Amino acid sequence: MTNMNKFRSLFVIFTLALVTFSCAKKIPYSKEIENKYGITEKNLGQLQFYLVNDIILVSDESSNNNSTDLDEDGHIIVKEELNTDRILIKSGTRGIFEKKMDGNKIAISFEAGDGRNLTFGASTVRGRYIIQALEWKPDGSGVVEYANRKYKLSRNSSGAYITVKLRKTKQLNNSSRIAKGRKV
Predict the structure, then answer these.
(1) Are 124 and 141 in contact (CB under 8 A)?
(2) Contact criterion met (CB below 8 Å) for 94 and 108
(3) Cα–Cα distance between 181 and 179 in angstroms, integer?
(4) Helix (H), strand (E) at residue 12
(5) What is the pTM of this model?
(6) Taking a C-beta distance cutoff of 8 angstroms, is the pair 104, 124 a contact?
(7) What is the pLDDT of residues 6-48, one digit of tens each?
(8) How many CB atoms lie within 10 A of CB 68?
(9) Is the CB of residue 153 less than 8 Å from the CB of residue 141?
């Protein structure tokens, strides 16, 4: 085999490998993606979702435990205890589909456990599925239900949305040969 034939063989193999294998890129999940690729409720359970922007949840139900004692010098001692629960779901965290809800909304779970999911719905601005709250406050924060408790959603978390990976593959079947020519 000549050097030229080796080069051609390597070139064809390299071209086929390059065209066949492609990288997946993350795209915002939207109603348009759902319609374009025919994603059904059954398919949603097979999709891997990824969070964009951190979500910070702080328990809205804080309990105050106050007690009063007297010390040996006759001073009043007031003990205050405040219990809060803070949950951070970092950008890039993987999530799975839990259930479809009314009005183009879906529940996505980022950790195992009963009720540990957040609602995302199609926005009217860009169509991407963004975090949904039970109620939005004037300061931009919201109230969500998570793990069967009410949590305050930080205002910085209000722009969080979900993405999916899209991989486009193209297969190119190419053959080449060299005509040897003809003699009279």
Answers:
(1) no
(2) no
(3) 6
(4) helix 3-20
(5) 0.71
(6) no
(7) 545 545 454 544 444 457 899 999 999 999 999 998 889 999 9
(8) 8
(9) yes
Encoding tokens for residue 174? 């190419």
d(CA 155, CA 81): 26
Rg (CA), the chain: 28
pLDDT in tens, 125-139: 778 999 999 999 999
> Which three-class secondary structure state does DSSP give residue 61?
coil
Residue located via tokens 């975090």: 131
Closest CA to 155 of 86, 51, 84, 54: 54
**In sequence order, what are the beta bridge partners of 29?**
none
For every residue of 126-180, which 3-state class applies, written as one string?
CCEEEECCCEECCCCCEEEEECCEEEEECHHHHHCEEEEEECCCCCCCCCCCCCC
* Assigned token pair, 159: 């722009």
Looking up tokens 């979702």 gives 49
- Cα–Cα separations (whole angstroms), residue 20 to 5, 16, 164, 171: 22, 6, 21, 5
Conformational region of residue 92, where left means phi above 0, alpha means psi within -120 to 50, and beta covers everything else: left
Place of tokens 């007690």: 67
